[in-house]
Amino acid sequence: MEAHLRFKYRDEKTAEAVSKAIKPDNIKTPDFMIINTSYEGSEVIIKILYGKRVETLLATVDDLLLCVNAIEECIDLMEKMT
Fold this sequence. Notes:
The protein is of the alpha+beta class and 82 residues long. It has 2 helices and 3 strands.
């Protein structure tokens, strides 16, 4: 099974920041799961390959969505402060 998540941002700088911020969350995964995070232009791409239960894959996607949302909120807050 696999899932592909794509997030579009206003510019490449923001996409790069989100991509770099989410990567530490993906370093340690079970042997049967691979998560790759990258950015192309103004888009962040997260690819998840998983060989077990669909419920675990969905929980992983949910966790990544929450993390991306938190990163976006931090970026917005930092931009308001400058």
